[in-house]
Write a structure and sequence with these properties.
Blueprint lengths: L26 E7 L6 E8 H8 L3 E2 L7 E3 L1 E3 L11 E4 L2 E8 L7 H11 L3 E5 L8 E8 L10 H11 L17 E2 L2 E2 L9 E4 L6 H7 L8 H24 L3 H7 L12 E3 L3 E8 L8 E3 L8 E3 L1 H9 L3 H14 L22 H7 L5 E3 L3 E2 L3 E6 L5 H14 L8 E5 L4 H11 L5 E3 L10 H12 L6 E5 L10 H16 L3 E6 L17 H6 L2 E11 L2 E10 L7 E7 L6 H6 L2 E3 L1 H19 L1 H11 L4 E2 H9 L5 H10 L5 E5 L5 E5 L11
Parallel strand pairs: 3-11, 19-23, 19-24, 20-21, 20-22, 22-23
Antiparallel strand pairs: 1-2, 1-4, 4-10, 5-6, 7-9, 8-9, 8-12, 13-14, 14-15, 15-16, 17-18, 24-25, 25-26, 26-27, 28-30, 29-30
Length: 674
């Protein structure tokens, strides 16, 4: 633990910490508070390395002592840490307060969640951590730009939801003026103190604000609420930007008496009184102050707050009135949509370049997937979709049909061992293997990367394999898949090839065939699609049937592959065993599988019949009666006797034309079937 702090626990002077992979050099603005009062103490900037060392050196005390830090810039002339005095925030601060028995995650789990999200930040326990089973933490996340006051609550909500901590987020600490107290630890709980830096990327604020509206999974009601909150915050920021210095005329326009805006103490237009209200308009922000709030509490705020108080309306209603007034006063820029000349998007003139980029009818996976198209392979777990795809990719590279260096295999659904096994196979072929969570790659970067390739004109010839598709988007979400497929269509329309592996539904259709999992748009928007079905497993030799369910090219409408799964064999051995089989071999496998299925269905009848016959020779009438007395239906007993006559038992015609049965010599006659 770093202890380079002075006796009075002031911020240290070290900007870097040996052995810590963390953006220590990034500087943030702080207002260091002296005591519990609101008067700022030391003002300035501090590096994250210095801040980390500060938090890793707590003072041991049994009392919660005052003072702390707010991570923000104050407006010029501000002397207090009120929300209206905040210009911008330089760190995002989350205060988590929960209990172990209500499901609040432990330190290690939260640390891992922050790592998984890729956030750069600091996680530390607080003075109350461990008291009565409480889990109490401070989380500091470093943004890539300063966060405006109206953006701060939205950003905190997004981070809390992405970390699964919304239930334990202190709602009183969701404003930019929230104080992060000095690092202190109770003497009885010293062993519970922990503070760690977490390496990662600076939080992309603009991306977070846009994603807040589409993060999944969310109900329509929650998404609607988020959209409304985001819209209000965005409109509020826009109003404050253009209303500065014009609040008197704005408030007058919406119906406030001009005499109430002269800066002198007087009656409040919102709650009455004699001299309780003052409109001081500090820094042109439309600020007011009133001592007559609910139960005698003072109220204050900026111009929008003033409109709410004066007119007794909601924030949304006040904002609407203010925007209308600003439009009348020509203070708010018009948000008219631009007009488009569609002819400027015409492809004319680029024919030769498009011909050059256009992929010929090259089959990148046997005769199943065509270059320049989007092809889906839908299969259940352990069907062999990954196995067959890798085998066919390797074959295409070996045959010189495609170049391995043009293939990128995104393995987003595998264990660490699985990654090692597949890398060992693909690397000799020049195929690049990518995995989210490794080397800084995140799942949400993939679509952005494809768009970037399109914009840079670096798509032609590239082959992207996504394993599995669910990592790019929820296939059951129509809106989300529409966005995903739009990006993929841009990618292939510029000469790229996309092969995606996906899952099937748990339940088959009325004919017993697998059904692809996803909304209809997924199938509508792709160029080719197959379902994979495991039709036979004969002592580890598996037969897989591929059925084409969508095609925009001359591809095989069906195909069969076999592979051999043997205990102790490597994944490479499994890939090497993949072979294509013809229809006659496939028919035998299907017939064998159907027979095995029938035998399994008849297993109870076979066992009871074999036990009844034993070493005797019984007539059909007597045999059916004895077996039926054990609770089995006579009709089915007769059908099973006929079905396996010659395989499990032999029938003979005796005296009076009576049929008798004997087990086949060498056992009970059923062992070789089970």
């Amino acid at each position: 633990m770093n202890t380079n702090l002075s006796e009075n626990n002031e911020l240290c002077t070290t900007d870097t910490i040996p052995g810590v992979s963390f953006p220590c050099e990034k500087r943030v603005s702080v207002q260091k508070l002296k005591t519990h009062n609101d008067s700022p103490g030391v003002t300035g900037e501090v590096s994250l390395g210095k801040l980390l060392a500060h938090y890793q050196s707590p003072r041991v005390t049994d009392q919660k002592i005052g003072g702390g830090i707010i991570f923000c810039r104050l407006k010029e002339g501000a002397e207090q840490r009120r929300n209206e005095d905040i210009q911008s925030s330089t760190m995002i601060f989350l205060d988590i307060d929960g209990k172990q028995d209500d499901g609040c995650p432990g330190f290690g789990m939260i640390r891992q969640r922050i790592k998984d999200q890729g956030y750069a930040g600091i996680l530390k326990t607080t003075h109350s951590h461990g008291l009565d089973g409480r889990n109490c933490y401070h989380i500091l996340i470093a943004p890539d730009r300063e966060v405006l006051p109206h953006e701060y609550p939205v950003t905190i909500k997004f981070i809390a939801e992405s970390l699964g901590l919304s239930d334990w987020l202190d709602p009183t600490k969701m404003n930019p003026a929230s104080v992060c107290r000095k690092p202190i630890v109770h003497p009885d709980r010293k062993d519970l103190f922990d503070c760690e830096s977490i390496a990662g990327d600076l939080l992309p604020v603009d991306e977070v604000l846009s994603k807040y509206l589409v993060e999944q999974p969310l109900s329509k009601a929650v998404r609607h609420r988020k959209a409304r909150e985001f819209d209000l915050n965005t409109r509020t920021g826009r109003v404050n930007q253009y209303a500065r210095g014009h609040w008197k005329e704005i408030l007058t326009t919406i119906g406030v008496e001009p005499s109430l805006l002269d800066g002198k103490a007087g009656p409040c237009p919102g709650c009455g009184g004699d001299d309780r209200h003052t409109f001081d308009d500090q820094f042109g922000e439309g600020t007011y102050y009133c001592r007559g709030g609910a139960e005698g509490n003072q109220t204050s705020g900026d111009g929008i707050d003033a409109a709410q108080h004066y007119l007794s309306v909601t924030a949304a209603e006040a904002l609407e009135k203010i925007e209308s007034a600003m439009m009348m006063l020509d203070l708010l820029p018009s948000k008219e949509k631009p007009t488009w000349d569609l002819s400027k998007f015409a492809l004319n003139g680029g024919l030769e370049q498009m011909k050059t980029e256009m992929a010929d009818a090259v089959y990148v996976l046997a005769k199943l997937a065509v270059q320049g198209q989007i092809t889906f392979f839908f299969g259940g777990p352990n069907t062999g979709k990954t196995l067959i795809t890798i085998r066919l990719l390797m074959d295409s590279v070996s045959a010189g049909i495609i170049q391995g260096s043009n293939v990128i295999y995104i393995n987003a659904d595998d264990t660490y061992r699985g990654l090692v096994e597949k890398l060992e196979l693909l690397e000799p072929y020049g195929i690049k293997l990518l995995a989210p969570g490794h080397k800084g790659l995140k799942t949400d970067m993939i679509l952005d990367a494809l768009q970037s390739l399109v914009e840079r004109g670096e798509v032609a010839g590239l082959i992207i394999v996504v394993d599995t598709m669910k990592k790019l988007g929820d296939l059951m979400d129509k809106g989300q898949m529409r966005q995903v497929m739009e990006v993929l269509r841009q990618f292939v329309s510029h000469g790229g090839t996309l092969i995606a592996l996906a899952h099937v539904n748990k339940h088959r259709d009325s004919e017993g065939k697998p059904v692809f999992a996803g909304v209809s748009d997924t199938l509508d928007d792709c160029d080719g699609a197959y379902t994979l079905d495991l039709v036979d497993d004969n002592n580890g030799r598996r037969t897989v049937y591929l059925k084409n369910i969508k095609s925009r090219a001359d591809v095989d409408h069906e195909a069969w592959y076999q592979y051999v799964r043997v205990a102790g064999h490597s994944y490479g051995d499994l890939v090497d065993s993949v072979t294509a089989i013809d229809s006659s071999d496939a028919s035998q496998a299907v017939s064998r599988a159907q027979q095995a299925s029938e035998i399994q269905n008849d297993k109870q009848f076979i066992q009871v019949i074999a036990e009844t016959i034993g070493n005797e020779s019984l007539s059909k009438t007597k045999l059916i009666k004895v077996v039926a007395d054990k609770g089995l239906p006579r009709r089915t007993i007769a059908e099973v006797l006929e079905k396996y006559d010659g395989d499990l038992w032999l029938s003979q015609i005796g005296e009076h034309n009576r049929k008798t049965y004997q087990l086949i010599e060498g056992g009970d006659g059923s062992q070789h079937l089970f």
